[in-house]
TrEMBL record:
Record bears the keyword DNA repair: no
Keywords: Calcium, Heme, Hydrogen peroxide, Iron, Metal-binding, Oxidoreductase, Peroxidase
Organism this protein belongs to: Musa acuminata subsp. malaccensis (Wild banana)
Gene Ontology MF annotations: heme binding; lactoperoxidase activity; metal ion binding
Cofactor: Ca(2+); heme b
Protein's recorded name: Plant heme peroxidase family profile domain-containing protein
Length: 67
């Protein structure tokens, strides 16, 4: 529970740390439908991204470094 400062992962707990996302954490904590709706909308947006493929793109072995 992020609001109770009992986040399982540090990265998750950082979502609720007196920042701009606190209101969303509270909303999603009490309203699973809002979370499901917004998550679905985000997945649709992600699905519309056209990643570069083949010789036009690059899958990095280490995200910090160009291969």
């Amino acid at each position: 529970n992020l609001v109770a400062k009992k986040g399982l992962l540090h990265s998750d707990q950082e979502l609720f740390n007196n920042g701009t996302q606190d209101s969303l954490v509270r909303l999603y904590g009490v309203n699973a439908r809002a979370f499901a709706r917004d998550f679905a909308a985000a997945m649709v947006k992600m699905g519309a991204i056209s990643p570069l493929t083949g010789t036009n793109g690059e899958i990095r072995l280490n995200c910090r470094n160009v291969n």
